[in-house]
Amino acid sequence: xxxxxxxxxxxxxxxxxxxxxxxxxxxxxxxxxxxxxxxxxxxxxxxxxxxxxxxxxxxxxxxxxxxxxxxxxxxxxxxxxxxxxxxxxxxxxxxxxxxxxxxxxxxxxxxxxxxxxxxxxxxxxxxxxxxxxxxxxxxxxxxxxxxxxxxxxxxxxxxxxxxxxxxxxxxxxxxxxxxxxxxxxxxxxxxxxxxxxxxxxxxxxxxxxxxxxxxxxxxxxxxxxxxxxxxxxxxxxxxxxxxxxxxxxxxxxxxxxxxxxxxxxxxxxxxxxxxxxxxxxxxxxxxxxxxxxxxxxxxxxxxxxxxxxxxxxxxxxxxxxxxxxxxxxxxxxxxxxxxxxxxxxxxxxxxx
Length: 352
Known about the structure:
Organism: Paenibacillus glycanilyticus
Keywords: Monooxygenase, Oxidoreductase
Strand order of the largest sheet: 1-2-3-5-8-9-10-12
InterPro entries: Bact_Lucif_Oxidored, Luciferase-like_dom, Luciferase-like_sf
Domain Luciferase-like: 10-311
CATH topology: TIM Barrel
Number of helices: 12
CATH superfamily: Luciferase-like domain
Protein name: Luciferase
Largest sheet: 8 strands, parallel, barrel
């Protein structure tokens, strides 16, 4: 499980691998082309000094990523130091033994850089795809998260649950290079998920996708209270803030460039899909006030202000949405690493 060090603050970049529609052809972008962009972005992040790179999991034709360990293994061979995590592993519709072995293999390939963010998933397509009942949504995740915790502890395991066949002195191989794979739980808006993460002693990756950050503080409080009640200390209970982010030389430039991608993403995957209405520039500008979009100085101010609320030790940025040009995404990654990160660490009096 993650360990906490109050003298560190990490920066990460993650992608869900969405495939935007090409306005010229009306067809989705090639998954193969998108994969190459993602690997290239990971290399840029590694070279620039970003601490963590993550890839998501979806099982739909409008996303390129369905197997995070495979993609991360490819990235491991092209990078040298950056930590590698799933941005979400949909644990409820996966076999935790297989997931653990995949990430343990990734850990060996990457010389101990593997991590995982386990989540319930934003979509439900994986339930019928892998033969699970949607009615078991919550119980599946809780049971499998507990099994994942135990798999991390021992190379042999005896376990039984309601929704998976039991294990009797089963050998779990290979073992990772790290003592254990760091496991985080992705949390959206429910105290139940936050409390579950705390009870498991996992890290909590809290998604802030709009609205005043203060309205999410109760989730962090719930997480830490549940974790402390379960016997975990602050060295284990660790919070990451994740969300949409874009950095440019000026805030005006950042708003101009990111609106082009965000408005497409909104229409394809978010509120615009239900009502068929595009996101106006005025509405985007209002929303952007609560997102990490702007100049390096502006974003550093927002991260420091959030740190006062949450006491988090990691910030994870999703930049490459809605067909954002790769060159712009790569430049934003570099600015996050070379300008935002030093400003935040200086303000928090953290030494690299």
